[in-house]
Design goal:
The complex is a heterodimer of chains A (522) and B (419). By secondary structure, chain A is mainly alpha-helical. Helix content of chain A is 60%, strand content 5%. Chain A has 12 helices and 3 strands. Chain A has a 3-stranded antiparallel sheet. In chain A, α10 runs antiparallel to α11. Chain A is elongated and about 120 Å long. Chain B is 69% helix and 9% strand. Chain B is elongated and about 105 Å long. Chains A and B meet through α10, α11 and α12 of A and α7, α8 and α9 of B.
């Protein structure tokens, strides 16, 4: 812990740096209350966590990026919890240069540039923003998925994607590297992470869904727009998936994840194929789980869990409804674009046949305007889909993962219950044996039962500990998830609205250009 | 104007301008009249539709006339007419030989509320499955749609009458005066099956004839040019009108989606426990407002573009009909000439042939003369109408886009400031 530095407690921070954070400060207090630092780490006063969840974070101008600071963290307007195993990454939706990560362990050390500690963009969801910041900023970790390439031919063909990682974390050997991965590799990664972390209560982000139809088209080599669309959709989904996964502090530490990101050769994950042995086993397990869920009657001692489950149920329903509406919008917008294009052609024809010169010209101009507007509609439909619709479908699947975690807790409880029941039975057996007095046989049996009882006592204790652990983990995870969700939605929706703004501005330009043409008809 | 509706499900009395829902129609009356820009309503004869009532199956129009002409008993009077009576009037013009040389103003299309009624019915049936506010929202929307269609049909009937009233010859027509003045039912029934069948055959014969007649090359350059032009123009306007229709409808569907998205966001906002609920509520509000603007864009496009094209589709057909009649009379004239030559050669029935030939000649010349003027006027009207509507379309699109932009920017400012 030698590298650990005491971060300036909330109240003592440089006042100037905190100016922007007035809104965020409410966030501080709420995060302080929901997060409990694990007993092993010291409790710094004024602990505060994720801040600046939006674009109104500390502006670059506030940061003094020069050598005048005495303290590494002079610009730190955000502080980090010092939970040792889990380091919550500082997240900002937009480059917030004033943030430096506090690294309590040697795991993560801020990379100091030659001159100044320019503030890192810790985690950015959008690649464009990352590219903007690319000069001289220190990243924590940033993932991109790009360059889909078809490898092979026929039914054995597959798409290979380039996974690029840029990071300042010292656990990676390089600061920037890329590898080639195929879709089943991603699925393999997810299944490994899920098998390790789901049952102890971590919300593991779900991988994108398989699509037999989509992939078959690509394999068969159809170079049409629907297969390029499919590939683009998948690429974006894979990128979001990885970004979410590395955002999770625990998962980030996982060696499988590191191997996925770093190593040039990865053993093929055959278990992810739907019709493989493992695939069928998965399906059977899923069915069994569903049945079990119906039969487990848990005595919920903690109202928090019941409440949260209900909330997630509601949220799930609402999101599905919203998603359906947004999908309809995407569909209609595409239709609108097609119809506008058709009209543009028709108007051009009409303009050609019109024998009044000025009117003919105006009609041709109208046709051009409509053609441009058609382009606009297409782009807007694109934005509708990739920003809004995909966000919603991602969250619908994430909530399914959250529900899964709650189910695991129930199973854990069941296990504990079962252990307790078994222990009780064993004790009863022992008691019965004590009463029945057959000295010769008994001693051996008594020893056996004694052993069993001790064994089950241990199991009960373990069960209780597990249950408490999973409950605690879930609470923390849910807290983190909710924060993420809020930030995600806000960021994406604001971006989406900005896309709408763009469209309107373009429309204004086009119609303003047309108006004089129309007026010129004499 | 006060419009009364009575549908199966809703009894609505809507005053123009009262709706605080999407105001589809403020430009509407100007819009359709603008399709015929040169309709000078002079003091001699002014016609308009002052009221309308929609009952289950029919629409009753109150036709109001103001006139200083001596032909009428009073200076100002009103009658109630139904759609069939308009058609009767139109057909009487078509069948009148004297008017062969004029472009007969196209008949107004039949009022068609079927689609709207269906939607209202579906809404009524689905009432149980949606929340109260959704239901109210959709009901308002459908009512506004119904009102829009209603106003449109009123305007189209009105335009027909105004065109007749503005035409120097047609306005003097006796049937027209009867139509305007006779304050009882004209006992015009819709055509029965037999008559409709007759019409159908008549049309077939006419189009076959039209093909034959159009084969005759015209000596007159002007008419030859007009013929080629109109043929092509008519087809293209038809196509453009259909495509424009589809475009406006897609636009409306997208606007409707905004409505549903707004509702869902609202639900999310009211149910969410985190601080994002304010955010959702604001965005939901934005979607509601932006939807109103999008709906108006769609409605304005419908009026300025689709309706314009549809109207000129009908008018160009009427112009084509005029050309057909002229060509027909030309053929008749040429046939009469041939007959005369034959008669002179045989020296039989010469006088008869001469008279017949003279009649044909007069008819042809009369038609040609007025047709020329009519076609020139048609062009002037058309150019003026397109100009007016395209300018208004562009202005409205700009207005709405700016409004939308402001809405979005305000909302973003609030959201960015808040969060």
């Amino acid at each position: 812990m030698a590298a650990e530095r005491e971060p300036p407690p909330l109240g003592d921070g440089k006042p100037t740096d905190f100016e922007e954070l007035e809104d965020g400060e409410d966030l501080f207090t709420s995060t302080v209350s929901t997060l409990e630092s694990s007993p092993s780490s010291p409790e710094p006063a004024g602990l505060a966590e994720d801040i600046s969840t939006n674009s109104n974070g500390p502006k670059p101008a506030e940061v003094v990026l020069d050598d005048d600071r005495e303290d590494l963290f002079a610009e730190a307007t955000e502080e980090v919890s010092l939970d040792s195993p889990e380091r919550e990454p500082i997240l900002s939706s937009e480059p917030s240069p004033a943030v430096t990560p506090v690294t309590p362990t040697t795991l993560i050390a801020p990379r100091i540039e030659s001159k100044s500690l320019s503030a890192p963009v810790i985690f950015d969801r959008s690649r464009e923003e990352i590219e903007e910041e690319a000069n001289g900023d220190v990243f924590d970790i940033e993932i991109g998925v790009s360059d889909p390439e078809k490898v092979g031919d026929g039914m054995n063909a597959y798409m290979a994607y380039r996974v690029t990682t840029k990071t300042s974390l010292s656990m990676f050997s390089k600061s920037e590297f890329s590898v080639k991965r195929r879709f089943s590799d991603f699925l393999g990664l997810h299944s490994k992470l899920a098998s390790k972390y789901l049952h102890v209560g971590y919300i593991v982000p779900p991988a994108p869904e398989k699509s037999i139809v989509g992939m078959t088209k690509v394999k068969v080599g159809k170079e049409d727009s629907s297969s390029t669309e499919f590939v683009e959709k998948r690429r974006a989904a894979l990128e979001r998936y990885l970004q979410r996964t590395v955002k999770h502090p625990t998962l980030l530490q996982d060696p499988d994840l590191r191997q996925f990101l770093e190593s040039s050769e990865l053993p093929r994950a055959v278990n992810t194929q739907a019709l493989s042995g493992a695939g069928i086993l998965r399906m059977v397990n899923k069915a069994a789980d569903a049945v079990n869920k119906m039969t487990i009657k848990m005595n919920e001692s903690d109202a928090w869990f019941e409440e949260k489950q209900q909330q997630f149920e509601n949220l799930d329903q609402q999101l599905r409804k919203l998603h359906a509406s947004v999908e309809a919008l995407v569909c209609h917008r595409k239709e609108l674009s097609a119809n506008t294009a058709a009209f543009a052609k028709s108007a051009a024809m009409l303009g050609n046949s019109e024998d009044h010169t000025a009117l003919s010209r105006a009609l041709s101009q109208l046709a051009e305007v409509e053609e441009k507007i058609d382009q606009l509609h297409q782009e807007q439909a694109f934005a509708d889909f990739y920003m809004f619709s995909e966000l919603l479908s991602d969250y619908i699947r994430l909530i399914a993962a959250v529900k899964g975690v709650f189910d695991h807790r129930m199973k854990c409880w069941q296990k504990w219950e079962d252990a307790q029941i078994t222990l009780l039975k064993k004790r009863e057996t022992e008691a019965k044996m004590m009463v029945a007095n057959k000295p010769d046989k008994i001693q051996q049996a008594k020893n056996e039962i004694r052993e069993e009882i001790e064994e089950w006592e241990a199991k009960v204790q373990q069960g209780e500990r597990d249950f408490e652990q999973i409950s605690k983990t879930i609470r923390k995870e849910v807290g983190r998830f909710e924060k993420e969700r809020v930030k995600d939605f806000k960021t994406v929706i604001i971006k989406y609205l900005e896309s709408l703004v763009q469209t309107q501005q373009q429309l204004i330009k086009y119609w303003e250009a047309f108006l004089p043409e129309a007026k010129a008809i004499a | 104007m006060i419009f009364g509706f009575q549908t199966e499900f809703f009894q609505i009395e809507l005053e123009e301008g009262l709706d605080d829902g999407p105001d589809f129609l403020s430009e509407e009356d100007r819009g359709l009249k603008a399709i015929n820009v040169d309709l000078q309503s002079d003091a001699a004869l002014q016609v308009d539709i002052s009221d309308a009532l929609s009952e289950r199956d029919k629409v009753k129009f109150t036709v109001h006339t103001k006139s200083s002409l001596p032909n009428f008993k009073q200076n100002e009077f009103s009658v109630v007419r139904q759609h069939e009576e308009f058609i009767w009037l139109h057909d009487s013009f078509i069948e009148n030989e004297d008017y062969a040389g004029y472009i007969i103003p196209p008949a107004p299309p039949r009022p068609d509320f079927d689609a709207s009624r269906e939607k209202l019915q579906k809404l009524g049936e689905g009432e149980g499955s949606m929340t109260k506010e959704e239901f109210t929202k959709m009901k308002q929307e459908l009512e506004a749609e119904y009102l829009a269609i209603f106003k449109k049909t009123v305007a189209m009937h009105e335009v027909f009458l105004c065109r007749v009233a503005a035409h120097p010859i047609l306005r003097k027509d006796l049937n027209f005066h009867v139509f305007l003045e006779y304050n009882q039912d004209l006992s015009v029934r819709g055509k029965n099956k037999k008559e409709k069948l007759e019409d159908f055959f008549k049309n077939m014969v006419k189009s076959a004839d039209g093909v034959i007649v159009s084969g005759v090359k015209d000596v007159d350059d002007f008419f030859e040019h007009e013929r080629t032009f109109l043929l092509e123009y008519h087809n293209r306007v038809k196509d453009a009108s259909a495509k424009s229709d589809r475009m406006t409808r897609s636009h409306k569907s997208a606007a409707d989606d905004y409505n549903r998205i707004g509702s869902s966001l609202y639900a999310l906002g009211t149910q969410d426990s985190t601080d994002i609920c304010k955010f959702f509520l604001k965005v939901s509000e934005l979607f509601d407002k932006t939807r109103k603007i999008e709906a108006r864009v769609s409605a304005d496009e419908d009026l300025k573009l689709s309706d314009l094209l549809k109207y000129y589709l009908r008018e160009s057909q009427a112009a084509k009909d005029l050309l057909y009649r002229r060509s027909r009379s030309l053929v008749d004239y040429e046939n009469a000439n041939k007959a005369l030559d034959k008669a002179r050669a045989k020296n039989k029935d010469v006088l008869q042939a001469e008279t017949s030939q003279q009649l044909c000649c007069q008819k042809f010349e009369k038609i040609s003369e007025s047709a020329k003027q009519e076609l020139i006027d048609f062009k002037t009207r058309r150019v003026a109408a397109f100009r007016k509507n395209l300018v208004e379309l562009a202005e409205l699109e700009l207005k709405h886009a700016k409004g939308n932009l402001q809405l979005l920017q305000n909302c973003l400012a609030v959201l960015n400031g808040d969060t």
